[in-house]
Structure to design on (696 residues):
């Protein structure tokens, strides 16, 4: 049996006469009905519902709009769903999708290879209008494949480097790391440690560079014993934080490269009877919800993850539905310092 | 322009001759090719990729499989994405979707009305194969609409009560609350408080009932001053927890109706210089990731959220693709106590 479509021919666009009739019955303008048909803003929810109701009543079911057939689906692929970091991105993408009148098809790679044939086949079968990739690392084979897809593609957090022909969105990591460290310097700290991420990620290097830049500006000589590398995980924060606190002369403040590392550092401090912020100041990075759940609440650098995802999605919709090229191949949105309760002047 | 479909007629199923040819070229059986076509398990990833590659090479693009046209899309609608609770459910649904060969279309209501016309219109336009609703409360209008949708529907956490004709999945709340409280009784606590949720939710009542049942079994007379009602939020845990700790004779242990409430309670305790677990034991409910980030790590009741969502999704796929009725109209999966560092015997 073929697909069942109520009263819509190929393309599914109702005739001008039909649009005029619906406008008249809804007591509104042709342009408003057109906005509803095209999922554009500027129509109240109540009016939109009324127009859709009328359209539905005359047997119209929107399938494609304008020049070419659209699925009004955007695929989002990400490494794992179950993280507060991923979920801020999904949240931002979903809100923008709602505004743009498209729906998100969400899939997680969960250890599978991003870009395997099965996943690509399914993506093509859905005929999604675009693909938003959230990934820290991209396999070279996939990088080759992406520009050959019929649908446009954008990326978030693409290794800082990106893929030719695929616009990407990130945040100002270097500035964020500098601001985090400068905050500690301004509070009067001189012995400041850092826990950063894996050395092969551009982000880890940027966080270290920002830290060193702020130390230099504060006239503080860097101490290699205060620089730790780990994963962006709670375990890593616990371990590296413990090593920093066990130094003969431990730091009085630590900049953790992620909020999760900061949570692990909290545990290491508690086990050693080190009080935050009286004896140790801590700054995180990301501004996950858990910063407000931590006790004391965690001072951190906000990454505008919702806005990053919203922008990447908007670029996709502009490319797919309006033939608008992206403004730039790489966009970085500004980070900001969020001061809470985990930072204070050093002990006297 | 009509939709572009590569070499697939209505239904999109390749002929027996085509399947046999692909099987021969892939050096495999017709039954294996058929499994790949139908998204069924029992085929290695490598072989599946090879078969899909061959099918794709001869211009086949799967659209429908078997008797009726399928979109292989399942809609998931939830109140908010940005919560650790929602994300465990999404994670479980996505894993099961991957196994079943369907993709998830995720939308959040974010304060909009679940079941408004616009959302329903979009759902119908997508012709999704099914609808998974995650919600604590359902508007009566939507309850009327759901059985009339052409696609099957399941629910998670439907107020405990559910909607006639819509199968739902939950967890054993009452047992979980009893186990949480019994754990505190067994540690020797006699002054045990509870912070539960809004009085109109079945869950809140079940948590209170389980708490009282465990007290009764421990021979402890209930004390109304120890029973607090609030939202399932961190703020509520902070406020109600503070009220409990400020009592002339405060409890030595508190069962919080959600992990978020427990996080708020941690803050209230820290501000009052009350040490967890030495002076106060705390048990949460849900087992969110944040339990491991808390310091000390939080003892809690695990809700098998991933399994709940996976089961609800599997029921949907069985109904939509295999005409299998659900096993029961209401299924509750077992909770379990997870002991971490926030509980200990009462101070001497």
């Amino acid at each position: 049996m073929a697909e069942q479509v109520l009263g819509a021919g190929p393309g599914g666009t109702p005739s001008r006469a039909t649009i005029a009739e619906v406008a008249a019955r809804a007591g509104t303008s042709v342009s408003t009905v057109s906005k509803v048909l095209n999922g554009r803003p500027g129509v109240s929810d109540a009016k939109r519902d009324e127009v859709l109701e009328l359209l539905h009543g005359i047997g119209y079911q929107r399938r494609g709009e304008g020049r070419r057939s659209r699925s009004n689906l955007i695929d989002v692929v990400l490494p794992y769903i179950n993280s507060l970091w991923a979920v801020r991105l999904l949240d931002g993408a979903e809100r923008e999708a709602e505004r743009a009148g498209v729906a998100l098809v969400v899939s997680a790679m969960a250890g599978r290879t991003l870009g395997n044939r099965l996943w690509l086949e399914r993506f093509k079968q859905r005929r999604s209008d675009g693909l938003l990739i959230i990934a820290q690392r991209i396999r070279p084979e996939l990088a080759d494949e992406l520009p050959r897809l019929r649908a446009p593609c954008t990326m978030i957090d693409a290794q800082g480097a990106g893929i030719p022909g695929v616009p990407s969105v990130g945040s100002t990591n270097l500035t964020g790391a500098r601001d985090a460290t400068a905050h500690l310097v301004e509070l009067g700290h001189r012995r400041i440690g850092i826990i950063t991420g894996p050395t092969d990620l551009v982000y880890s290097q940027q966080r270290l560079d920002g830290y060193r830049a702020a130390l230099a500006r504060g006239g503080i000589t860097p101490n290699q014993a205060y620089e730790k590398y780990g994963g962006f995980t709670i375990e890593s924060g616990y371990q590296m934080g413990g090593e920093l606190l066990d130094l003969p002369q431990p730091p009085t403040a630590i900049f953790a490269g992620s909020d999760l590392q900061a949570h692990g550092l909290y545990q290491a401090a508690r086990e050693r009877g080190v009080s935050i912020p009286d004896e140790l100041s801590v700054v995180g990075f990301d501004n996950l919800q858990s910063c407000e759940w931590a006790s004391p609440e965690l001072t951190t650098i906000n990454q505008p993850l919702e806005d990053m995802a919203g922008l990447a999605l908007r670029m996709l919709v502009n490319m797919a539905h309006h033939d608008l090229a992206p403004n730039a191949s790489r966009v970085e949105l500004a980070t900001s310092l969020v001061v809470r309760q985990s930072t204070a002047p050093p002990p006297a």
Q: What stands out?
A: The radius of gyration of chain B is 25 Å.
